[in-house]
Write a structure and sequence with these properties.
Blueprint lengths: L5 E3 L2 E3 L7 E2 L2 E3 L5 H7 L4 E3 L2 E3 L2 H4 L16 E5 L8 H5 L3 E5 L20 E4 L14 H7 L1 H21 L3 E7 L4 H4 L4 E3 L20 E5 L29 H6 L3 H10 L2
Helix pairs in contact: 4-5
The structure holds S-adenosylmethionine.
Length: 266
């Protein structure tokens, strides 16, 4: 059994605890402070590594366990067609696993198999049924196509279940501002693409508005805003002409944001 610990809202949470003995060795999981006193001198296995004592794996006062090597850090990128958000992790040598049903039916997150433990999760479930930009059709859709909302909620639930099952060190779920909060509660923060535009290859490309919500246990990315404050293209996403590709273009993660997120979550 691997160690399990989580960093919720920036705080290391020592909950339920603890290791049991596995093959004669203590396996660290969440520790309460009282349990910590009991086990700190015992040999432990942490992220697959053996340490002579729990204290040497987590020196006192240290708020994080030692990180596993980059190539062992599995990142699940759920509902990721373009790969923009996960690309910085690929470039840095992480073990990135992308899932998007448009690319391959085998990548359906409702049916795919996932590892038992992962390092990070980026989830970008479809927003069509939740985004406030579609609010004027909610009543009509509820009357004529209620299954659309049921399916959309099922995908969000699948993301949350995968997060629960794979115990990531951090996770993030993204959706444009809308009614998803009715299902998973208020988000932790919102951002506009232009707020990170200076990290993009071409800052002007990311210089647009699309208020986006983030849930999760990640570290907040540092802003690098475009000097024109609300952007040179403002609402360009809302003005895209109808086309087969419009939905994919609208939902592509902005590159500057993806880079800022990576810098804060490694
Ligand atoms: C809001 S978009 C996110 C796009 C993402 N920001 C990007 O840059 O590619 C939602 C994505 O979820 C994918 N999707 C929908 N149902 C899925 C499923 N059951 N399993 C995996 N992916 C799914 C869609 O194909 C779509 O690309």
């Amino acid at each position: 059994m691997a160690n399990q610990y989580s960093n919720l809202d920036g705080k290391l949470i020592f909950t339920a605890y603890f290791g049991g003995v596995s093959q004669g060795r203590i396996v660290l999981m969440h520790v309460s402070e009282r349990e910590w006193e009991r086990v700190k001198s015992e040999p432990v296995v942490c992220d697959g590594y053996e340490y002579p004592s729990a204290e040497s794996a987590r020196p006192s006062g240290q708020r994080r366990w030692p990180l596993p090597p980059v190539e062992s850090r599995i990142i699940l990128s759920l509902c990721d067609l373009t790969g923009t958000w996960s690309q910085p992790y690929v470039d840095a040598g992480y073990d990135v696993r992308r899932y998007d049903i448009q690319r391959d039916p085998a990548e359906n997150i409702l049916t795919a198999e996932f590892p038992g433990k992962v390092y990070g999760i980026i989830a970008q479930p479809p927003c069509t049924q939740f985004a406030v930009s579609g609010a004027r059709w909610w009543a009509q859709k509820a009357a004529t196509q209620p299954e659309l909302l049921v399916e959309a909620v099922a995908l969000v639930e699948a993301c949350m279940r995968i997060i629960e099952d794979t115990q990531p060190e951090w996770w993030v779920l993204e959706n444009p501002v809308g009614r998803l909060r009715d299902w998973i509660g208020p988000c932790r923060e919102t951002f506009q693409p232009w707020e990170f535009a200076m990290l993009a290859d071409d800052p002007d490309v990311d210089s647009y508005t699309k208020r986006t919500c983030l849930w999760g246990t990640y570290t907040s990315p540092e802003r690098a805003p475009h000097p024109l404050a609300d952007g040179v293209h403002k609402g360009k996403m809302h003005m895209l002409p109808p086309s087969k590709e419009r939905a994919n273009l609208r939902s592509q993660t902005p590159q500057g944001f993806a880079r800022a997120f990576f810098k804060a979550n490694q």
